[in-house]
């Protein structure tokens, strides 16, 4: 019964959060200076055409009725039609979201491994050379604009040294021959069976993944270091050392289990940040992901595309945070979900 009560409480909070997200996105559509009717019929449409389109869009109804229709359409996967691409927003998102998820997932895996390792080594040896390196990387990662670093990487590794391919996901030789079966370029090139396609995809991923991973590991390393420093002076670690345990044994057997929830939360927040904040990276590297799609939509005043992308990002944020809360509660029984 206790588990059922906790699950119902968690599910109710999740449903309320999603409802609030839908309410916010609906409100934004009504506060937008862009007229959705003109986006459909054009600026030179007649009055009768304007009114007919307004009725078809349901804008002649009351706001509560419009909100119910909006929720119903979203529940059915209908996010409207993009005025800039002429395609359903759902189709555009199905094409662009996998590219961003692939980029962010690879980046967070690399950033988490390096960031946690660096943070543990730094926290275990405060004031040492490894601690100085970790603190410098954290400060540099937070201070340097990501778009400037991305341009610098392209200039150095692509234009000057020719070690990396240019922007995009694939070379022109594979761009139109590899079928986008899943939307994930590594999987699609692997399934295609074409010689060199998978390796070419890896080469194109190298620079943007490294850039995003560096941005993520800066925060992960700093907060991991802080968590380790807060624990290494506790009585249980002193007692473990008194019994003859080495510093690394104390960290891996005693400290890390106690800070695993904190580290997992930091990694989850970094992952969400990469999903919603890869706009500049995708623009610099011409990566056809959600960030670049939203940038184009904002310049074009494409309200359905902007709100559809915002809704997807919000749902990703809610889902990842909810899963993280359950995992943290599982790792640390002191925390109730």
UniProtKB/TrEMBL annotation:
- Has keyword Transmembrane? yes
Question: Which Pfam families does UniProt cross-reference here?
Answer: BPD_transp_1, BPD_transp_1_N
Gene3D superfamilies under this entry?
MetI-like
Q: Which GO terms describe its cellular component?
A: plasma membrane
Q: Which residues does the UniProt record annotate as the domain ABC transmembrane type-1?
A: 97-328
Name the Gene Ontology molecular function terms of this record: dipeptide transmembrane transporter activity
Q: What is its main location?
A: membrane
Which PROSITE patterns does this chain map to?
A: ABC_TM1
Keywords carried by this UniProt record: Cell membrane, Membrane, Transmembrane, Transmembrane helix, Transport
Location of the protein in the cell: Cell membrane
Family classification? Belongs to the binding-protein-dependent transport system permease family.
| Name assigned to this protein | ABC transporter permease
Please give the organism.
Answer: Microvirga alba
